[in-house]
Write a structure and sequence with these properties.
Number of strands: 3
CATH class of the largest domain: Mainly Alpha
CATH superfamily of the largest domain: Winged helix-like DNA-binding domain superfamily/Winged helix DNA-binding domain
Order of helices and strands: HHEHHEEHH
CATH topology of the largest domain: Arc Repressor Mutant, subunit A
Number of helices: 6
Shape: globular
Strand order of the largest sheet: 1-3-2
Number of domains: 2
CATH architecture of the largest domain: Orthogonal Bundle
Distance between the termini: 29 Å
């Protein structure tokens, strides 16, 4: 691999941490996905939509706000809501003030599906993320994730405002903080 003079290459320690992070997060996501499919009959992305709706006032959100809250493109969210509608877990309602807008509403059967899936999901999160860590490590992980989220948030917000997904945000769009 050729080395470009302005590239900030990872040190050996950073490379190890990066690879451990990438593998660990992929394994966590696989565990969450597998457990929710097995025990809840839904992918993790659908579970997260149900959670967002369950926490919204009236268990209702505008589709555009729900997409933003899930860092999802409008089309990807629309597909997920269509599947959730087919299960009877969500219904769409037209927005009376904006003919192009729509509301996603969590149904009582959707809330029941969420309630049934949540205990197994929480246990899987606890077993695989928190149980291996000491209380101090949990605190440190929280601080680390808050720093990373803070670094990425501005770029994600800018991308979503431009109608793009969060993954399309350029690092240059995100203000740098610190040294």
């Amino acid at each position: 691999m050729s080395r470009m003079p302005d590239t900030r290459w990872l040190s050996d320690d950073e490379q190890r941490v990066w690879r451990d992070f990438a593998v660990a997060t992929a394994m966590l996501h696989a565990h969450f996905e597998s457990q929710l499919q097995r025990d809840g009959g839904m992918p993790h992305a659908y579970y997260e939509v149900l959670v967002a709706l369950s926490e919204a006032p009236g268990r209702t959100m505008r589709m555009s706000e729900l997409a933003d809250a899930r860092f999802s493109s409008r089309s990807r969210l629309s597909h997920a809501v269509a599947r959730l509608e087919a299960n009877g877990w969500v219904r769409r309602e037209a927005c009376p003030t904006d003919k192009r807008g729509a509301w996603a509403v969590l149904t009582s059967s959707g809330f029941a599906a969420l309630e049934a899936a949540a205990p197994g999901h929480v246990e899987t999160v606890r077993e695989n993320l928190f149980d291996p860590l000491s209380p101090e490590q949990v605190k440190q992980l929280g601080e680390i994730m808050a720093a990373i989220r803070g670094r990425l948030s501005a770029g994600c917000a800018a991308a979503m405002a431009a109608g793009e997904s969060c993954s399309e945000a350029s690092p240059a769009d995100t203000p740098r903080t610190g040294a």
